[in-house]
Amino acid sequence: MLEQLKQTVAFIESKIKNKPQVGIILGTGLGGLVKEINIQDSLGYESIPNFPVSTVEGHSGKLIFGELGGKQVVAMQGRFHFYEGYTLQQVTFPVRVMKMLGIQTLIVSNASGGVNENFSVGDVMIIEDHINLFPSNPLIGKNYEELGPRFPDMSEPYDHTLIKMAKEIANKNNIKVQSGVYAGLSGPTFETPAEYRYARIIGADTVGMSTVPEVIVARHMNITCFAVSIITDLGIYGKTVEVSHEEVQEVAKNAEPKMTLIIKELIASI
Ligand code: HPA
User: Fold this and answer.
1) pLDDT tens per residue, the chain (270 residues)?
2) Beta carbon of 232 within 6 Å of any ligand 1 atom
3) Cβ(191) to ligand 1 under 6 A?
4) Whose CA is nearest to atom 2 of ligand 1?
C-alpha cells in the first residue's frame, strides 16, 4: 500500500504546478463548486496509477487542482462508494494521496436521508459526528505508523472550529442549517422503515452511504475534517415514502447554491 501511495503521489506531483492545502470531496450537491475553482490542472482518474475508477451515475472521475478562496485546493470530482464493490481501502485511497500531496483540511459533502423529525427535504445539515455502520473499518489490517497510529482518537472527528465558522457563515447569509449525527452504512438499498427507525434510536439524524470511511482515514492521518449533508428524503417512522436516485439528485441540485456558498466562504476563512 505504501509503495502504491508513493508511486501515485510521485506521478501526480510530476503533473501539477502547486501543492494543495485543502482537499474537497465533491459529493452529491457540491458538484457546482467546480465552477468556482480557478483550475490549474485536471487529471482523469483513469490516468492516475493505482486510482480506482468511478462508476456510479451522476459522478464523473477527475482530480482537479486550482485556487479557491485564496487557497490551493484539490477537488475530487466523483468519489468511490463501498456499494460499487470497492474495498474500504480503495474507497479511501484518494484521501491518503491528498494528504501526501500536502492537504491539512478535508471538506466533504453528501446526500442523506433525514431521520430527525425536525428535518425537511432540502435542508442542509452540518455533520457534527458520525456512526460507522459500514460492515467494516478502512483501518482494519496492517497499520502504517508513517500514516498514523494503530488506535486513532476519534473524539473530534469533525473540527469544532470549522463547524462554528460554517454556522456563522450560514447565519450571516440567512441560510438555515441543521446540525447533527450522520450514520454511514453500506447501501445500495435505501433503508426499510425499521432501519430508519433503528438509526434514529441509536442517535443518528441522517443516514447515507459515504463519508464515514473517508473521515476515518483522514482522522488517522490527523487531517482536519468538515462535512455537510443535503437531506434529500425523510425516513421518519410512519412517514417513510418511496425514494429514488433521481429524486435524491434533483433535491441535491436545488440545494447546491446554499452548500456552495457555505463551502466557498469557509475555505476563504480557513
Ligand atoms: N438512505 C441512505 N442514503 C441516502 C438516502 C437515504 O435515505 N438519501 C440519500 N442518500
Assistant:
1) 899 999 999 999 999 999 999 999 998 878 889 999 999 999 999 999 999 876 655 445 899 999 999 999 999 998 999 999 999 999 999 999 999 999 999 999 999 999 999 999 999 999 999 999 999 999 999 999 999 999 999 999 999 999 999 999 999 999 999 999 999 999 999 999 999 999 999 999 999 999 999 999 999 999 999 999 999 999 997 777 788 888 888 888 888 899 999 999 999 999
2) yes
3) yes
4) 208
Closest CA to 128 of 227, 243, 62: 227
The residue ranges of DSSP E strands in 57-176, in sequence order, are 62-68, 71-77, 105-114, 124-132
Cα(262)–Cα(15) distance, rounded to whole angstroms? 30
- For the chain, where are the alpha helices, taking DSSP H only? 2-13, 88-101, 160-172, 193-201, 212-220, 245-269
Is the domain defined by 2-269 classed in CATH 3.40.50.1580? yes
- Mutating to test ligand 1, I would choose from 59, 81, 112 the residue with most ligand atoms within 8 A of its C-beta, which is 112
Q: Are 88 and 186 in contact (CB under 8 A)?
A: no
Length of the chain: 270
Residue 109 CA from chain centroid, whole number: 4
SS3 of 11, please? helix
Q: What atom of ligand 1 comes closest to residue 208's alpha carbon?
A: 3
β-strands 38-44, 22-26 pairing: unpaired
> What is the distance of C-alpha 117 from the center of its chain?
24
Interatomic CA distance for residues 104 and 63, integer angstroms:
17
